[in-house]
Amino acid sequence: MESANQQQVHALYSHHHGWLHGWLRNRLGCTHRAADLAHDTFVRLLSARLPPRLDAPRAYLCTIAKGLVIDHWRRRDLEQAWLDTLAAWPEAEVPSPEHRLVILEALVAIDQALDELPAAVRQAFLWAQLEGLSCPQIAQRLGVSLATAERHVAKGLRRCYALRFES
Known about the structure:
Shape: globular
Distance between the termini: 32 Å
Largest sheet: none
C-alpha cells in the first residue's frame, strides 16, 4: 500500500515529468543528463515530506531541479580541475582509475561540506590549507581578530574531519 507521500509523488511524476525533463534538457543541452536529473528530482521528493497541498508544483519541482543542476555543474567543474591536475602528474605517479574515483568522491564531499560553511570560515580554511597562510596572516586579510581567524580555520578542519564519520 502506497503512503500519501508516494501517491502525491506519483501524481506529480505523471503530470509533470515530461515537462521537467524538457525544462532540464533546455538548460543542460543533453537529454540523457536531463533524464538523470529529472529522475533525481523525483527521488528527492520520495524522501522528502511534501506539503499536503502544492499550489505551484512546477515551481516546487524547479526549485529542487535547480539545486541539482547547480550540483551537477559544480561537480563537473571539480572533476575537470581534478583531470587537469592528473594530466600534469608524471605518468608513473598517476593513481589507478579506482583510486582516482575515490579521490574525486572525497573532493566532492569536501566541496559540499565547505560550501555549507559561512564564506569567511571557508575562505580562512582554504587560505590555511591551500596557500599555507598562518592564522595571523588570515586575520589580517579578513580584517578580524587572531582568535576569530583561529576559530574559522578550526571550524573548517572540524567540518572536514566530520566527513570521516558521515559516510
